[in-house]
Design goal:
heterodimer, A: 490 residues, mainly alpha, Ribonucleotide Reductase, subunit A, 12 helices, globular, B: 556 residues, alpha/beta, 2-enoyl-CoA Hydratase, Chain A, domain 1, 2 domains, eight-stranded mixed β-sheet, six-stranded mixed β-sheet, 23 helices
Chain lengths: 490, 556
């Protein structure tokens, strides 16, 4: 598989290869054949899933797509590439290999063997965590369903579909947990995951950010960079869960998530590269007329997606997050690298609050501020991408730079939600707030939309984006990654 | 900052005055016969510092506004026939009482808070049942704990059916306490939910949503968001069509109360409370009307004597209950002309929405007394005017002392006091148990009730003979007897007195109200003080710390 020098390799698969039973209708490595009841439940869910995929999945008709399919969770087995019709994609159930000696790493159950069944006292909380995670997976597929119509290249189209089918598989992963471990209620919740639809007025998705339509490819790349990255961090905390099946599921999902990060990082990067090139060539910021997206517009998109994604972490101070931690349900990012007692009682940290028109630190109990702890790790991660994008500007000889806005900018949730904070972190009065300067305007979106012309010729790219240096899985950039259906070409 | 502060030993003084233009948390909008009360809690608007009212959670301050709105709707808006209660936050109706507030509050504060919120919910039911002003809960999102309990007080509950919004009572599994405003009782006794389902419901933190909530009877309808407003409007229109409230009548403005507060007295135009802190006693004197009933009571508005007395007493009870927990004995007296009181009593029995509203308000205020955890003593002596509506104060008291004759040394020529029972005492002002105070007094002895003459002046001997007063004493014994009784009372355990009085006051049948104030409140108050709830490792104190409660597993 190709390694992008700018993003580094995807995480290396570890552990032994495990056989997957493809004779079954639902590929899996959880010995589904040995559990008739669960198998029947999932088989009855599968047609509903396929219905959903056909109705709300990618709208652009295709014959087949060059997709990566997990055929094993172990070394080298989880990334198998082939052309497959999307409806025949082998959505299956894969958990990372079980470590029989695994113990719970944090909270009051620290040191106890990891749970193989749901403990009754944590049923409601675990179910809620899984439902919320599960709800986001199909949501993004729904949000992105029309993007194929305006793909800047066949290469990008393939990446979109790869993200989509894997989000679908992540839904499967959550549904498996609900079916296998949560009884009748779990099955009802699994049904609800398909009944709620992104942006549906009557049955919206649970989290607000997942009800906004993804209207253009710049949004898609920003979403994939910022919002999917929130997903990565949430999965990272669930990977630490004392509930072993959840931990193993999320560990495997994280491997797939790396590709989504790759799509976002390189998508924005290639957009910026093209912008920088046009700016350098024409010596102007106003590059609409040359078919590029002005850097200011990219910055405003970035501001929007970043701030909305920060909201997904919830309030800085959260009772639930603390409870989840203490109960051993949800850990911290890279829990095993933290050098503390993994119980956190009596420990404090600083969080920013707005007081008397200034942002000042305030000491709060660490246990109540775990959302903030996770968000800090996320922010740090986000800043790497921005650095990389700025290198592209630098190499092109452009002086302007992109920046991450202040954590308090444009927030609807948490300590900043009732204040206006500028991108550079000044507390503003109502009158100083200038949305048109800092967030995408109607004109911005119209301008971007006007550039969104499909480019379906192999190896060709739309005017606003640079080609990637490599193709997927060592294939050339001009490879026939997607075979469109006849009607799409008409 | 510490999340859980130690319970405060001195609670702040609370003022119950507010008005719609001062609301921070509710918005009252009146559109013809339909009013809408929208809850959008200002997170920074807690009545005391130390917590944020997130996600439409409430504290006493929020509920004081609700009480004010409910009262104003009845008096200021005779034309309002349906009231829609809804939430102003996206996909959130109300998250119930604020937990951090509960965790940091003293026991007394929690109990008083629950009592007041319970009374307001009962008032909502009273409006739907007796006033033709029907409440409709439009749950635009999650209704948890006290949020669902507020909905339970409404006649009809409609929940948005969006695949995620649920009604829930998560107190037991999440906080280790009970739903404190009648939730458990109303689920089985009002909504008639099967007891095993009620058990599942009240132990399920995430609650029940959509069709299941309808099937179980927890809500009346689950309606998709797209049709929600339309359906609420239709249900409100139905309620309007069924209402008995009048059209085209002007309301009575509830102008600010006239009240003078000093260290040792609270004085209103017709009510005066004098505080004796050493004796831990309040002497409350209610003055009769200066003039007979007017032809048009509505024209007098808040100065109409029965309304003025009711408002003053209502406010006084709330203030004393909340701000003066150590004044354990309240002694009631009346001063005025008995015949003028009786004239008002008769006039108040007439038709018309305003008279009806005043009667129901007096009834609710007397009910406040019934559930007040203070020893109530009534004194009947010369110059008093206990007849009809004012006589209810007599029988709301735990004991009645009546002077037989006059104070010879003070005014030998004074008229001895009489009491008069009127029709109004036989069912107009029912207690929470559904009985009149006289029925309750003579519970199990219908012949004694039947023997009480209506409309006759009864002197001390007759009143004692009929069982209308505890003791009739002549002036040689009266002062000493009363003084000793009050001093003795003050020496008894306040807790035991509260329990004993509450037990004696409510005889006979159980109703939702008596269950809420009796068993639910008693259990709740026991749970509140148990270490499993309020100990340092208890569920209530641990809530919000990220730690789980450490329960003592022994069942008691």
């Amino acid at each position: 598989m190709a390694t992008d020098p700018r993003t580094g390799p995807a995480p290396a698969p570890t552990g032994p290869l495990s056989a997957i039973d493809y004779s079954e209708r639902i590929p899996n490595n959880v010995n589904l054949a040995g559990d008739r009841r669960l198998q029947r439940a999932l088989e009855s869910w599968q047609p509903k899933f396929l219905d959903w995929w056909k109705t709300l999945g990618p709208a652009l008709p295709t014959q087949d797509v060059y997709l990566r399919t997990a055929i094993a969770v172990g070394r080298d087995g989880w990334a198998h590439f082939d052309h497959v019709p999307m409806t025949e994609y082998r959505w299956g159930i894969f958990l990372a290999e079980r470590d029989p000696d695994r113990t719970i790493a944090f909270g009051t159950h620290q040191g106890e063997p990891a749970w193989q069944e749901v403990p009754g006292e944590y049923r409601a909380e675990l179910q809620r965590l899984i439902v919320i995670q599960g709800d986001t997976e199909p949501a993004s597929v729904e949000q992105q369903r029309v993007l194929g119509m305006t793909a800047p290249s066949i290469y990008d189209l393939r990446n979109l579909f790869q993200v989509n089918v894997e989000e679908g598989r992540h839904l499967w992963a959550m549904v498996y947990l609900l079916h296998a471990y949560f009884g009748r209620e779990g099955r009802e919740e699994a049904e609800q995951l398909l009944k709620r639809n992104s942006g549906d007025f009557d049955n919206p998705r649970i989290l607000g950010a997942f009800n906004e339509a993804t209207t253009d490819w710049l949004s898609f790349f920003m979403f994939t960079y910022f919002t999917d990255r929130d997903g990565k961090y949430q999965l990272g905390t669930l990977k630490e869960s004392g509930f072993d099946p959840l931990a193993r599921t999320c560990e495997f999902m994280l491997k797939e998530e790396a590709h989504h990060m790759f799509v976002g990082t390189t998508g924005v990067q290639r957009t910026v590269e093209r912008t920088a090139e046009l700016m350098a060539t024409h010596g102007t910021d106003d590059i609409w007329r040359y078919g590029g997206i002005p850097l200011g517009v990219i910055q405003r998109y970035l501001n929007f997606h970043y701030s909305v994604s920060l909201d997904l972490f919830g309030s800085e101070q959260s009772t639930n997050a603390g409870n989840y931690y203490t109960s051993g349900l949800k850990g911290r990012w890279q829990e095993d690298r933290r050098r503390d007692d993994h119980v956190l009682i009596g420990q404090n940290r600083d969080m920013n609050v707005v007081r008397d028109g200034r942002i000042v630190p305030q000491e709060v109990p660490l246990l109540s501020a775990l959302n903030l702890d996770l968000r800090d790790a996320y922010i740090n991660d986000c800043s790497h991408g921005v650095k990389r994008w700025n290198k592209a500007l630098e190499s092109a000889g452009v002086d302007a730079r992109l920046m991450l806005p202040h954590e308090g900018f444009n927030r609807r949730v948490g300590a900043y939600s009732r204040h206006h904070i500028s991108p550079t972190g000044e507390v503003l009065a109502e009158s100083g707030w200038d949305a048109a300067r800092w967030l995408p305007t109607e004109d911005d979106r119209r301008g971007v939309a006007a550039l969104m012309k499909p480019e379906y010729e192999y190896g060709k790219f739309a005017s606003w984006i640079a080609p990637p240096p490599f193709g997927i899985n060592d294939q050339p950039v001009e490879f026939d990654y997607v075979h469109l259906a006849e009607e799409s070409l008409a | 900052m510490s999340v859980v502060t130690t319970p405060s030993t001195s609670d702040p003084a609370v003022d119950f005055d507010t008005a719609p233009d001062r609301y921070r948390h509710w918005r009252l909008a009146v559109d013809g016969p339909v009013a809408t009360l929208t809850l959008t809690v200002d997170p920074a608007g807690g009545i005391v510092p130390g917590y944020e009212l997130k996600m439409n959670s409430y504290d006493l301050g929020v509920d004081i506004e609700l009480y004010d709105a409910v009262q104003r709707l009845r008096f200021e808006h005779p034309g309002v026939k349906a009231v829609v209660i809804t939430g102003g936050l996206e996909r959130m109706f109300c998250a119930g009482a604020n937990i951090r507030m509960l965790a940091q509050s003293s026991h007394a504060w929690k109990v008083n808070f629950c009592k007041f919120t319970n009374e307001t919910r009962n008032g909502i039911e009273d409006a739907s049942e007796h006033s033709g002003q029907v409440y409709l809960a439009a749950l635009n999102g999650a209704a948890a704990g006290g949020g669902y309990e507020l909905a339970l007080a409404c006649e009809t509950i409609v929940l948005v059916d969006d695949g995620s919004s649920a009604v829930s009572l998560p107190e037991v599994p999440l906080l280790g306490v009970l739903p404190g405003t009648g939730g458990l009782t109303r689920v089985v006794d009002k909504r008639l939910v099967r007891r095993d389902r009620a058990d599942v419901f009240a132990t399920k933190t995430e609650g029940i949503r959509g069709e299941t909530a309808v099937r179980w009877g927890l809500v009346d309808e689950a309606v998709p968001r797209g049709r929600f407003d339309e359906r609420i409007a239709a249900l409100a229109a139905d309620a309007v069509a069924r209402s008995s409230r009048p059209d085209g009548v002007a309301g009575v403005r509830l102008t600010p109360l006239r009240r003078e507060v000093t260290a040792d007295a609270i004085t209103y135009p017709h009510v005066r409370a004098t505080i004796d802190r050493t004796a831990r006693r309040v002497d409350i004197t209610v003055a009769g009307p200066a003039e007979g009933p007017p032809d048009d009571p509505g024209a007098q508005g808040v100065d109409y004597w029965p309304l003025a007395v009711t408002r003053a007493l209502d406010d006084l009870i709330l203030r004393l209950r909340t701000n003066e927990p150590e004044l354990g004995t309240w002694v009631f007296r009346t001063r005025g002309d008995l015949d003028t009181v009786l004239a008002h009593d008769a006039a108040l029995g007439g038709d018309g929405w305003f008279a009806g509203e005043v009667r129901h308000y007096w009834k609710r205020t007397l009910k406040r007394l019934d559930v007040t955890s203070r020893s109530l003593v009534a004194v009947v002596d010369p110059g008093s005017c206990f007849g009809g509506l004012l006589a209810e104060l007599l029988w709301a008291a735990d004991r009645q002392y009546m002077l037989d004759g006059v104070y010879e040394d003070v005014d030998a020529d004074a008229e001895p006091a009489d009491v008069v029972v009127t029709e109004a005492n036989l069912g107009t002002y029912r207690m929470g148990n559904g009985l009149s105070r006289l029925e309750s007094r003579f519970w199990g002895h219908p012949e004694l009730l039947a023997a009480v003459p209506v409309g006759e002046r009864l002197d001390a001997r007759a009143a004692e003979e009929l069982g209308l007063v505890t003791m009739a004493l002549d002036d040689i014994d009266f002062d000493d007897e009363l003084r000793i009784a009050l001093e003795e009372r003050a020496s008894l355990s306040p807790d035991a007195l509260t329990g004993m009085e509450a037990s004696n006051r409510f005889v006979g049948p159980e109703t939702v109200e008596t269950k809420v104030f009796g068993r639910l409140t008693a259990w709740q108050n026991w749970i509140f003080v148990r270490p499993n709830a309020s100990g340092p490792d208890g569920a209530l104190r641990r809530f919000g710390t990220g730690q789980r409660a450490d329960f003592d597993p022994k069942r008691v």
